[in-house]
Amino acid sequence: MVFQNDILAGAAGAGTGYTIDQSIRFNDNDSAYLSRTSGATGDRQKWTFSTWIKRGNLSSNQRLFHDSGNTNFIMFGYSSNNEFRVYLGADIRTTALFRDPSAWYHLVVAVDTTQATSSDRVKIYQNGVQITSFSTAGYPSLNYNTIFNNSGTTYQISGQSVAEYFDGYISEFHWIDGQALAPTDFGEYNDDGVWVPKAYAGTYGTNGFYITGEDSADLGADYSGNANDFTSSGLTSDDQRGDTPTANHATWNPLFFRRTGSYKPTFADGNLYVAGQSSQVSHTGTTISSSGKHYAEFLVNNGSSSITGPGVVRSYWDNGLAQSYASNYGGSYYGDNGTRYYNSTSDSQTAPGANRVGIEVDFANNEVEYFIVTSGGTKTSQGGKLTSANGIDFDGEGIFSATLHDNSSRNITAYFEEADWWGTPNTGYKALSTANLPGPAIADGSAYFQTTTYTGAGYPTEVNQSGNTKFQPDFVWIKRRNAATQHNLFDAVRGVSSQLYSSLTNAEGTVSNAISFDADGFTAAADPITGDTGSSGNTFVGWQWLAANGTASNTDGSITSTVSANVAAGFSVIGWTGNGTSGATIGHGLSAAPELFIVKNRSNSDFWAILETVYYGATHYLTLPSTSGSNSNSTFWTNTNPTSSVITLGTQNRSNGSGDSMIGYAWHSVEGFSKIGSYTGNGSTDGPFIFTGFRPAFVIFKKINGTDSWEMFDSTRPGYNVTNLGLLPNTTNSEITGRNIDILSNGIKQRNANGTTNENGNTYIYIAFAENPFGGDGVAPVPAR
Prior knowledge:
Blueprint: E1 6-7, E2 18-19, E3 23-26, E4 33-37, E5 46-55, E6 62-67, E7 72-76, E8 83-88, E9 91-97, E10 105-112, E11 122-126, E12 129-130, E13 134-137, E14 154-157, E15 168-177, E16 187-189, E17 195-197, E18 209-211, E19 231-233, E20 240-241, E21 252-259, E22 266-268, E23 273-275, E24 281-286, E25 293-301, E26 309-314, E27 332-334, E28 339-342, E29 345-348, E30 356-362, E31 367-373, E32 379-386, E33 398-405, E34 411-415, E35 449-455, E36 461-464, E37 475-480, E38 488-491, E39 498-499, E40 509-510, E41 515-518, E42 521-524, E43 539-545, E44 552-554, E45 561-566, E46 571-577, E47 585-587, E48 596-601, E49 608-612, E50 620-624, E51 631-632, H1 634-637, E52 646-648, H2 653-656, E53 661-667, E54 674-680, E55 689-691, E56 694-703, E57 711-714, E58 741-743, E59 747-750, E60 763-773
């Protein structure tokens, strides 16, 4: 098949509409690379490297571009640790680690060794942003002549002379001889704040080239006009793929697995192939989770009859180390022995043999149907649809899964791209890609939530938002980062003079105009009663939510409440006067039942009360600033979960003190913008992967079956992975280092064994808010972080 690049209005989602139709897959097991020898000398001191990358194998050093003499190179890894590295007579290695295999990175290296300032000689950009934090920062000497653009030099894309082969996908590979360009020559931010590709309109110079993979028979063809073609080795026409920066397709997710022992599955072929391990039962799922209708095909190789096979399961499939079959978690899978497994039962069908297993799944309606698909396109149903009557329950969204038994000869190859299918799905079933996800309600998370870091200037300190969209917040949570001070919470319902602290049980404090809510952020206007919000020279973080920019009286409940509710964002600030009556209700102003409700009695010194409905529900409560886990008590919520209109209260002083002024913050999940959920820790630095369906901007974790602190992270501190700066809302502690999570394009990966986020066997809840959705109808796929 032959693809080409087109300019199609709107196809990239609120941007230029530039679409990329193909990529080149490099499998390190195939020793795949492209090479050419330069016939002329160009500019050895000034050049630009630009390409889009989707990573596959993350566990090895991998060359992206280098010379055969290994004099200069651009690569991932130093001691296989996934940093980005440029070596030009001196070594530059990023602090950031690049280990998101679910989406595409745009990387630019702009070199000009004639610059007097050493740091100006090599500039590295990721997704349009210059990288400035390096574990090693060795810049080339003034007027250093790189080996690149030198006559007679052999260049290689991927490894070869030094092994270290790249594993993953490469698209839009530009090499510019004679110019040190900005990333804006190759990409731009669209209206939603997503970095997307754009057509390069400049020149390439003598040795410049543009590798697109448009011709499957000649993947190294140069489309710059220079005819600087590359020769391929270890690549076939099948390595031309439709997985691109503008059409991100599902693969198996190497960050998402479960197993019975110490080994996880092995992945290859751009993560479309997954194999088991000796004497192990292991499982994995796809990089994309969906609530839609999808089709895919799978080729299973067992070596002998067993129950290795593909299936479907809910997205939050238990994240522990335990053996966790999809059929035990509301899902199902189809064994290579011809058996359908579901709801802890099974029935006999047809063993696929050399045929494929086709799966049609409707995640929203809890339906799945298996087919045997022949190479001639015949597609035969196996037992008809499994439905909720058979125990199928995806709880709203799910993934394709792989179950692998006993040894590496038992493996599954997935065909997620439509061009690879043997069969034709029934009407309405689509490939699992970001373009085929339901359209998100919110495409730009910065319009409803933002994190802002700032340095205090004394009082007043004006804090301006830096996100793609600006708004006047209705709820602001501030914490000084470099000292032990209180967490300060302000909202529009209580007013700018009222102050609460998540780290104290104190009643509300009052100070004249402690804060102002501005059109593009807030101003710390006056020295607060306790804590700190803007003292000169100190560092702070402010988390900001948009509600209604106004308040309204709500009479939905038995108690009239005052609310500032944002229906689109699933967030409401609720004020009321408690009556101490069991079964009293308050209206929250949202369109769906809140899943997290945080309450403080403003009048009394007492603990905060927290209701979560994603695990225990209204039979339990959590508290701040206590570190205790969930406790059962019917006096908080009368064992009654919230509805789409009201929240039920009990007699407890913390949730409904008679005659007391109360304040509450309520949230429910909004697809593509916010997620409230639960998971089980595994106590490993290769911890659980948590699907959110977006690139998180902010997340709070709490262990609920044991004692430990709450912990907060955001994508702004430090701004790259590993994200290792935590704050504890139940304490005054300053920022804590070494906490270690990865914030990714589609969720969160635990990279530590801390009790606050990933202790083995313990259960955690979380609430996360988005920068941008992972994808969806009409929006651009978010790049990797």
